[in-house]
Design brief:
single chain, Rossmann fold, Four Helix Bundle (Hemerythrin (Met), subunit A), four-stranded parallel beta sheet, four-stranded antiparallel beta sheet
Amino acid sequence: MRIYNTMTGTKEEFVPLKKNSVGMYVCGPTVYNYIHIGNARSFVVFDMVRRYFEYTGYFVKYVQNFTDVDDKIIKKANEEGRSVSKVSERFIGEYFKDTDALGIQRATIYPRATQVMDDIISFISVLVRKGYAYETQDGVYFSVEKFKDYGKLSKKNIDDLISGARVEVNDTKRNPLDFALWKLAKPGEPYWDSPWGKGRPGWHIECSVMSSKYLGDTFDIHCGGPDLVFPHHENEIAQSEAKSGVKFVNYWMHAGYLNINNQKMSKSLGNFFTVREILEKYDPMVVRFFMLSSHYRNPINFSFDLLDQAKVGFERIKNSVLKLGDLKGQAESSSGDNEIIQDITKEKQGFISAMDDDFNSAAAISHVFNIAGIANTRINVQSGRATINCAADTITELMDVLGISLNIKKEMLDEEIEKQIEERQQAREYKDYAAADKIREELKKQGIILEDTPQGVRWKRI
């Protein structure tokens, strides 16, 4: 398996720190509003990555944080006349409604900034003691110049950054690039006691603390959007490696932007749709299918026309499985067509090869379409149940790997149906037509239609 590592700018073979185990950290939302579909793309992408690791036999410890104290949350709380905790709690709940609908598995751990405050204070204390951080009249700052590798993720030169930095209204910082580790509280803001006074943490320190607390000083994969490369992830690296003295993360993964009219979708620009708004009009699985139909590192342009195209593609795959379900009930034998089964197996291997190559879900989906094409053009009632089952099961399995449910109701197993048909036949032989009709009706409720023919009883799904 190869992963594109933002740090090196190349695809690298994935070698986990622990055999058959993966530690992943995903930067989660700041919970002051509903998530928009640009946010959702990252969450869908990295859920797909996690699912594929699990499919290939890895145990994944998946950590995603919630930033539950922040300037934006405080502003929202003041506007609504509510506490910061009530605002954050509300939008954490709304986040789960949206992500559950999109088929995003729950993380192993969802740490919150407010729950690790002692760890944050301890972390900052180490940085101060080691000379990487200093106290000012408004808080504690990290000294960027003290960390010699600053800029290695974003490939930015520190001298260029300093010369191009905006002049901030803050004459207490030694360097315009220095960033806050601890902010002293302003009147009316929530605060925690610390050695430097009552205050709250800076944004960057929260992720460093939560990731290292649950995954260790060095872990496998850190994920996020491309807008987080600088300064957020760059600052995480600086403060984490300054504290621990060891490499912070082995692989950095960043999902591409979801754009509107080729412009990044964001709340600050006001050009966004919330997930909630889109799910009022589209099946969540169509939205997920749309997001995974492009390689995760590529930007994708959002439009309702493209969503409609994704819907057509999704339904084409779904309809092929429904057709196979109908054929299964009509199949004349239990045998299989070896040539067709071999071709399906080749497509499945193509899916796996695509996913092994930096989680190329777009190429992987093309192999699912190929199997659907085989189902639609080469499989019929003479193909045999083994062939039909192979096609249906493979499509369903591969879509499940991507976290895309075809939303086909759970159906009775063939053996269960055959058993009930046999019981109905026995009832007819004993002239217990009421019992026979009852079995027919029960099967009909399960979507099974019986046909009495001169060759015996046949059944099909509806």
